[in-house]
Amino acid sequence: MIDQLEYWVVPYAEPNDHGSIRYSVFVHLRDSSGASGWGEAVTIFDEAARSTMAVLDGWAPFVVGLPAEPAAIREAVYGHAWWYAGGGASSFALAALDIAAWDLAGRLRKRTVVELLGGPTNVGDPTLPVVVTTHAMYEDLDYQATILAQHVDDIGATGVKVGWGKKGGAGLGIDAVRDRSFAGALRSALPPGSLMMFDIGARIRWNAREAIDRVAAFDEHDLYWIEEPLGADDPEGYRLLKDSTDVLIAYGEREWTANGVRRILLTGTVDVVGIDAGRAEGITGFVDAVGSIELASKQVNAHAFAGPSSYAAGLAVSLSTPCCRQFEVAPLRNELMTQLAPGLDVPHGSVTVLPGHGLGVQIDRGAVERLAVMSAD
After folding, report:
1. Are 135 and 144 in contact (CB under 8 A)?
2. Contact 362, 28 (CB under 8 A)
3. How confident is the model at residue 377 (pLDDT cuts 50, 70, 90)?
4. Is the pLDDT of residue 123 over 90?
């Protein structure tokens, strides 16, 4: 039985995004036996984090006293918050609670979350190759390409996903000639056979015709996938793009729920579904979505670009499904990683089940309390 629920807003500087300040909400659940689990909501913005805290304030009175089971928490949350559950801050709050509940359940049973999910898909080799995920930040694109290739070499990655339209001087996604030049420079800098993916940020506004032309211009550089070139919700535009290219189309990271994932799968326009456990209602929401992704014979790709709990949650689900083929790793460790879970190192070559029970991540409570700017009363 859960006898304590605590939560904090923790800001951090993200070195893979030009040092921008981001926010996560961390949740700590304690069972009456003394066991505990940690979860994380990847809220990114200050106001989203504070809204998530307000939702948790409303839920705390009935979460305490529930069985230490993810299903019990989810049922109680949807029963209470029927008017506003299934999106926004409620999905953030449920994500953090759900991840913490899975972590706690694993520790109580002395099992890993991967084991609770049925074990790794490939029992003989329970690993996934890593790909670098970071943002283009430098104006000198040849230098930027060299830096990215160095990251790939440093962690033994099979490829790199590059965020466009982010902070810094790169300016990608605006000028088509400059974009083609970067694609060529990056392909030349990478080891032969490396995967190359471009993640088109929310600040970039391409229409379908522009996206078709841009993606066609990358054909000679063997682009593996293009992510969110038309944002989160443009089924007509994505249909036109899908019909024009063999490059894989990735989106879905901004869906809140498994139902949202099913909606985009039904359009037939997504090849790689991005999911963030710290946004889309935690491990339970991720697993629910994965069931539909498997049935559609599509890929899933975990977004694990924030703190240690969301990283471990995304890894656990990724290892337990055959529709995940790689796992993204940020090459530069942010403050959440270095201070909250200093024992969690950047992997080299591949990722596997983290050692220890639950999620396999040891969170430094003192560091959470020291870095937090807001906590439950």
Report:
1. no
2. no
3. low
4. no
For 331-342, the pLDDT digits (tens) are 999 999 999 999
For the chain, give the secondary structure using H, E and C.
Answer: CEEEEEEEEEEEEEHHHCCEEEEEEEEEEEECCCCEEEEEEEEECHHHHHHHHHHHHHHHHHHCCCCCCHHHHHHHHHHHCCCCCCCHHHHHHHHHHHHHHHHHHHHHHCCEHHHHCCCCCCCCCCEEEEEEEEECCCCCHHHHHHHHHHHHHHCCCCEEEEEECCCCCCCCCCCHHHHHHHHHHHHHHCCCCCEEEEEECCCCCCCHHHHHHHHHHCHHHCCCEEECCCCCCCHHHHHHHHHHCCCEEEECCCCCCHHHHHHHHHCCCCCEEEECCCCCCHHHHHHHHHHHHHHCCCEEEECCCCCHHHHHHHHHHHHCCCCECCEEECCCCCHHHHHHCCCCCCCCCEEECCCCCECCCCCCHHHHHHHCCEECC
Residue 278 has pLDDT above 80, yes or no: yes
Answering whether pTM is above 0.90, one says yes
For 146-168, how does the pLDDT look when each residue is reduced to its tens digit (9 = 90+)?
A: 999 999 999 999 999 999 998 89
CA distance 326 to 359: 19
Domain ranges of the chain: 2-110+364-375, 115-352
- Residue 346: pLDDT above 90? no
Mean predicted confidence (pLDDT) in 178-204: 96
Q: Name the CATH topology of 115-352.
A: TIM Barrel (3.20.20)
Q: What is the CATH number of domain 2-110+364-375?
A: 3.30.390.10
